[in-house]
């Protein structure tokens, strides 16, 4: 029995700090199976209520600890495990001040309260925890849980499902082609209908080109090439290019190549063994890099779909397996025994040589810098400028001078100057020394961010690095070991939201909000290393949202949002098209489409998001001044 308000205050504190259960503004909800792992103070408190209620609470599913008043309620959801959103049958309310027990019965109600996010009530070792969690992910991705105020009862929830054309098959969302038919159907899947004729390169292959994976002499093979659009377009660019497809080009040979594309194949194969076989076969044909892509966002659930196996069948009679981004990586990694690198949502690069993979990973964090311009007329420099330009470009890229055999012009430069150092002294006479020092410091930051994030995936030993990457660490840090120590210190700080908030509020770049820093994507490389690492914790798993040009870094919660404004450069107040939100605590992704919103959400003060060296910065300033007048 509670003897004072001070005791109840202790109970409230325990509820608000509980790592178990679902905390809402006025209550903590816990599954009965988790009572034994609660704070002992809460266990004793619940025991007092149990003594009052006695056998009335037999079979209760959840326990509700009121934090606004000293009451404990026992909630009965008989179908908690079976129903994705079970209805409340009854509740037993124990008033610990008045020592009274009351009951509410919903047995005959047409509109009882229902549950959402069931995984939040149970501990993580609960047998169905993962199944509950996956359902919530699907519902969040579709925006079904966006407005919790209007989904708390059976009728409200059913109305929303009807509007969206959504139903449930167990704990999975489906859109029945014929909702009135409860009969099971068998399907002859027509996989070839999933192939799309394209005018342009597919996104996975285009990303590989943009990433510099295609070099002179690179060979390309498209495994499951469909109509063969990528094969033709890569061949048009001067590369040796071939493809095979079981329906459109079955007579073509399976040919090994430097780069092999498995583009949106594994998500249209309904047979699990065949899906795995396709991935393994493509990998066996790969000499250097395998590109794997699959559908990952569930955004077409209103177009006539039905559950089938571990995916859905579309109304075109094709199969689609919608992977979660992390699920896709795990699948590739487990089947091929590799560490796949995310290139974009649903797109991964898989390298045969792990040292090349690490070099590519490091290059992704290289911020963009310009080679310092000649500022002072130096006659000797003008005489040798053509010879020294490759040396300057190398330093701008690496932040250091080349080692042996790293620069094609090595022999010519050393024949003239003896050493790279002497040659670069002449460069320094004609340019701003501080700019070169800034490049070196920037490259140190780039490498630290790469190393810090590599800690999540078993950071490689020095021996497993590409020679040029080993040289980077030796030249810029003295040793790989020292660089790792600095990276660990940086990584240790990334979980400190107070530090993140301080850097956001004091950033020289971006628009500062009370709870976030908003920047243009081009400005990311200019931020403090800790903020870049903070963003990297999101993009390391998911890459950045395709076409996103604005990034919002929250400092009151671990979250990054990527925003896409298609007309950022051309409109004074561009409209928001879509966003991708990454929760760094749960690694959950929420995608939202605003393209049809009326009125559109428009961006103001966009000049604050870019740095002064952005090509259109002055134009943005003038547009802002004009709008203020």
Short summary of the structure?
The protein has 629 residues and is of the alpha+beta class.
Word description of this protein:
By secondary structure, this protein is of the alpha+beta class. It has four domains: 5-120, no CATH class; 191-352, Vaccinia Virus protein VP39 (Rossmann fold); 364-492, no CATH class; 497-628, no CATH class. Helix content is 35%, strand content 17%. It has 18 helices and 23 strands. The strands form five sheets. A six-stranded antiparallel beta sheet has the order 1-2-3-4-5-6, covered by helices on one side. Strand 14 and strand 15 form a beta hairpin. Helix 10 (379-398) crosses helix 12, helix 10 (379-398) runs parallel beside helix 13 (433-454) and helix 13 crosses helix 17 (529-542). It is globular and about 95 Å long. The N and C termini lie far apart (67 Å). The relative contact order is 0.05. Residues 176-189 and 298-317 have low confidence and may be disordered.
Map the helices and strands.
Elements: H1 5-16, E1 22-24, E2 27-31, H2 40-53, E3 62-66, E4 71-76, E5 90-95, E6 100-105, H3 129-141, H4 154-164, E7 167-169, E8 172-174, H5 203-210, E9 219-223, H6 229-236, E10 240-244, E11 257-263, H7 272-284, E12 286-293, E13 306-308, E14 311-313, E15 319-320, H8 325-336, E16 341-344, E17 347-351, H9 354-363, H10 379-398, H11 410-417, H12 420-430, H13 433-454, H14 467-477, H15 480-493, H16 497-505, E18 511-512, E19 516-520, H17 529-542, E20 550-554, E21 559-564, E22 578-583, E23 588-593, H18 617-628
Parallel strand pairs: 9-10, 9-11, 11-12
Antiparallel strand pairs: 1-2, 2-3, 3-4, 4-5, 5-6, 7-8, 12-17, 13-14, 14-15, 16-17, 18-19, 19-20, 20-21, 21-22, 22-23
Helix pairs in contact: 10-12, 10-13, 13-14, 13-15, 13-17
